[in-house]
Amino acid sequence: MSLTAAAGQVALVVAVIVAGKSLICGVLARAFGYGNMAPWIVGLGLSQIGEFSFVLARTGRAGGFIAKDTYDLALTCTVLSMALSPVVFSGALPLARAWARWRRPPQPSRALQAPRTGLDNHVVVAGYGRTGRAVVDALQRASVSYVVVELNHDALAGPLEQGLPVVWGDISSEDILRAAGIPHARMLVMTVPEWHAIRLGIDRAKGLNPRLFVVARATAARHVDDLRDLRADVVVQPEFEGGVEMVRQALQQCERTDVEIDQLTAELRKALYQRLDT
């Protein structure tokens, strides 16, 4: 079967494959908690047929399970989907931005319970997951003024009931940063997991307040240097910190002195956080 003889059939199959796989991968990414532009990037980035399909098609053909025309069609569609992959992926960000504009909440920058006054020299906590809740609890105990920014409205049910100061919105939005009082804040604690939101949020927050002290969580080890390049003052990588704490616990059981433990764990932390390109 030649490509020219069955161009319509090939085009239809490729379109169905790309659209169907993009939708499935994007929905799965969203189901696993990835928001913002991540589902679009994951979905369109994985829209092509994988190389393993060549092996499956050849095995099916050799075993007589599929006809030659079917084999030719599968081979052609696989090659075309892989060739079109860069073009399809390049549309991820424009489509995500268009979707965000269309799906934008009616009042995205409204502060639900942010104080009308006193937003000065305060801490902005981005994200109200486990880490964000721990930070908020510590700030409350220390009597430090703060505002929570959270995109997931369901996650704000608890803070709203408790009367905590919260802003509903995306921390990467300049409107949301202003609603949270970033221009007058002393610190931004970035606990959200989405890398795109972290990167844009820090960059725009620093633009609004160059003296802002930023504490950011690196969701992956490769992001440690990226966050430093974004002028994050303190970078915390959970896996690194977990390893340091395990070493501390092990040394305590080995009856080392507190001075020795502090020195060894400090050296370990320094080695873990050193720039990856050095």
Task: Kindly report the CATH topology of the largest domain.
Answer: Rossmann fold
Number of helices: 12
What's the number of domains?
3
Q: What is the H-and-E element order?
A: HHHHHEHEHEHEHEHEHH
Report the top-level CATH class of the largest domain. Answer: Alpha Beta
**Any guess at the CATH architecture of the largest domain?**
3-Layer(aba) Sandwich
Q: Please tell me how large the radius of gyration is.
A: 25 Å
Classify the secondary structure makeup into a structural class. alpha/beta
Mean pLDDT: 82
CA-based shape: globular
Largest sheet, spatial ordering of strands? 3-2-1-4-5-6
How helix-rich are the residues, as a percent range?
A: 55-70%
What's the CATH H-level superfamily name of the largest domain? NAD(P)-binding Rossmann-like Domain
Count of individual beta strands? 6
Poorly predicted parts? 105-109
Largest sheet: 6 strands, parallel
State the separation between the terminal residues, measured CA to CA.
54 Å
Beta-strand content estimate: 5-15%
